[in-house]
Design a protein that fits this description.
This is Bifunctional NAD(P)H-hydrate repair enzyme. With 505 residues, the chain is α/β, with parallel strands linked by helices. The chain has helices at residues 11-24, 30-46, 59-73, 90-98, 133-144, 191-195, 259-271, 302-306, 326-338, 349-356, 374-381, 385-390, 392-403, 438-451, 456-476, 486-497, and strands at 7-9, 51-55, 78-82, 117-121, 149-153, 175-179, 197-201, 221-225, 248-253, 276-281, 298-301, 315-318, 344-347, 368-371, 406-409, 415-417, 423-426. Adenosine-5'-diphosphate binds at residues 348, 373, 410-412, 414, 429-431, 433-434, 436-440, 442, 467.
Length: 505
């Protein structure tokens, strides 16, 4: 996959970069640049509207104070409320000294802010305790104002820049103008709900590099997966090809009552371009010998598929609707044994079974990808779901290291980690995907891309992006987010795959 253009910095890495930038630039440069960027954004998008700025005690508050002065100079009506502070950091202190005093309001924010722009400059990446009562009251006021535009500087107050955890009462931004580099917490977990549109301003530090921390505790830096990072996904097909050129994939799943999950994964694989797709059904006496709506799929009882040495299976997808009983555990063990030299996607029930029976997971010679949702990830790591969600990037990396696997930790802002700890957060997707079967579809899609010869990085990140982009495309057409179905994601993903210029970024 080509080097991506959209880095995400964990907070330790960000502080290192901040430090390097401060050394490289004349003193007191960054805060005026941050305020200038905010001023420009407001004038470009909302010229003519009054602006209310809420300022905190640190440098985030300092950004707000300088912004107030700049807007005032541009004749924009500005009101400013600042939390009580004993001592400000140097840059914020300068900003405080230079603030035209008439802009400062006393007491709590009040008045009708309909039509106003409300700027959150309360706390940025320096927030490290629970919010105090004043801050919570001010945030509640800001979040309640109907008809106002809400803009967060750097990060919405209350949101964790690394994890996307939102404290109660976190600012609800329409737009977040984030400084220096983008942050994972703006894109995963609750990040998207609170950050709104994310605009990045590097404050002229594009060329600044920093020695980044390499300790295990910090997440370092990763990437946001965007369309531009998925070039191999859109490679066109040569004429001189045949079905064998695009790989043979086998799905093993579909235990009692769960045939649909295996069919969804298989149909997704077919529609994403796999040359041939076998479906091994784990149910003892499958009711289906053919998928009448998709007769191109080759349905087999699991035993016959696993015993078929000459099928040329180049990728396995195992787990979709497999079940978790003893029979399913046996099928999984047999499949992982058959697939140890073949790229494999492990999903759903197979992950639960792997967690319960680690001794039945054979050593692997080929790469593999695990696609857990948070509860499955928790079982694999022996912790609870809350611990996974508390730091999705770190936990995806832990899981990837534990199993020497690519890991797709699903949910809002899906996190991908490679075995060596390189990580990304998906930039596509929406809550339309929160419906049964979309995970099966994702597993089939990643499998299909592997079957067509994409390398692991490209297939996993490309599949995750395309899956989310399909949901966005459907929603843009009014098919979702409410009531979007997993089957519709398959068709939309095929459509996007065949429409390289699609406008979804
Ligand atoms: N230093 C730099 O190079 C730049 C900093 N900038 C801004 O500065 C921000 C970071 O500034 P700071 O490190 O000062 O951090 P913040 O402005 O986020 O706040 C830190 C201050 O708040 C206090 N604090 C933390 N949690 C609190 C809580 N729950 N209740 C009450 N007080 C609490 C801290 O003790 C500290 O005084 C960035 O997010 C960005 O907005 C920008 O101006 C761009 C450049
Ligand atoms: N709120 C959401 N925002 C974005 N993506 C979501 C959301 N909820 C679910 N998804 C995606 O939908 C898929 C659901 O997968 P999974 O939970 O395994 O479902 P199933 O087992 O029913 O197929 C994953 O790709 C996940 O990332
Ligand atoms: K803020």
């Amino acid at each position: 996959m080509a080097a991506t253009s959209h880095p995400l910095f964990g907070s330790t890495a960000l502080r290192a970069l901040e430090h390097a930038a401060q050394s490289a630039l004349p003193p007191h440069t960054l805060m005026p640049r941050a305020a200038q960027a905010a001023c420009l954004l407001i004038l470009q998008r909302w010229r003519g509207r009054p602006v209310t700025i809420l300022c905190g005690p640190g440098n985030n508050g300092g950004d707000g104070l300088v912004l107030a002065r700049l807007l005032n100079q541009a004749s924009v009506p500005v009101r400013i409320w600042a939390l009580n502070v004993d001592k400000r950091p140097a840059d914020a202190e300068r900003a405080w000294r230079d603030l035209p005093r008439g802009l400062l309001q006393s007491g709590d924010p009040k008045g009708d802010a309909k039509g106003a722009v409300i700027v959150d400059a309360l706390f940025g990446i320096g927030l490290h305790r629970d919010l105090d009562a004043d801050t919570r009251r001010w945030l509640a006021w800001a979040n309640e104002q109907e008809g106002a535009v809400r803009v967060a500087l750097d990060i919405p107050t209350g949101l964790d820049a690394d994890t996307g955890e939102a404290r109660e009462g976190t600012f609800m931004a329409d737009v977040t103008l984030t400084f220096l580099r983008d942050k994972p917490g703006l894109h995963t977990r609750s990040g998207q709900d609170h950050a709104g549109e994310v605009v990045v301003d590097m404050l002229g530090t594009d060329a600044v590099t920093a020695a980044l921390p390499s300790d295990d505790q910090s997440i370092g830096t990763g990437n946001l997966i965007r369309r531009a990072d998925c070039k191999t996904l859109f490679v066109s097909r040569k004429h001189d090809t045949h079905k064998g050129s695009f790989g043979t994939l086998a799905v093993l799943g579909g235990g009692h009552g769960m045939t649909g999950a295996a069919l969804l994964a298989s149909r997704a694989a077919l529609h994403l371009g796999a040359g041939k797709v076998f479906v091994g059904l784990a149910e003892a006496n499958p009711a289906l010998s053919c998928d009448l709506l998709q007769p191109e799929l080759m349905l087999r009882p699991a035993a016959s598929l696993l015993g078929k040495k000459d099928a040329g299976i180049g990728v396995w997808v195992v787990g979709c609707g497999l079940g978790t009983d003893q029979g399913a555990a046996d099928w999984l063990a047999a499949t992982l044994h058959a697939a140890r030299e073949t790229p494999t996607v492990v999903d759903a029930d197979a992950l639960i079974l792997m967690a319960a029976n680690p001794k039945r997971v054979p050593a692997r010679k080929a790469a593999w990808v695990l696609t857990p949702h948070p509860r499955e990830a928790a079982q694999l790591l022996g912790c609870d779901t809350a611990a996974i969600q508390a730091n999705r990037v770190a936990q995806a990396r832990r899981l990837a290291a534990k199993y020497s696997a690519w890991v797709v930790l699903k949910g809002a802002g899906t996190v991908v980690s490679s075995p060596d700890g390189r990580w990304s957060v998906n930039g596509s997707g929406n809550a339309g995907l929160a419906t049964a079967g979309t995970g099966d579809v994702l597993a089939g899609m990643i499998g299909a891309l592997l079957a067509q010869g994409l390398d692991m990085d490209d297939a996993v990140r490309g599949g995750v992006w395309l899956h989310g982009a399909a949901a966005q495309d459907l929603s843009a057409r009014g098919i979702g987010p409410i009531g979007l179905t997993a089957g519709e994601v398959i068709a939309a993903a095929r459509d996007l795959r065949n429409r390289p210029e699609n406008g979804v970024t």
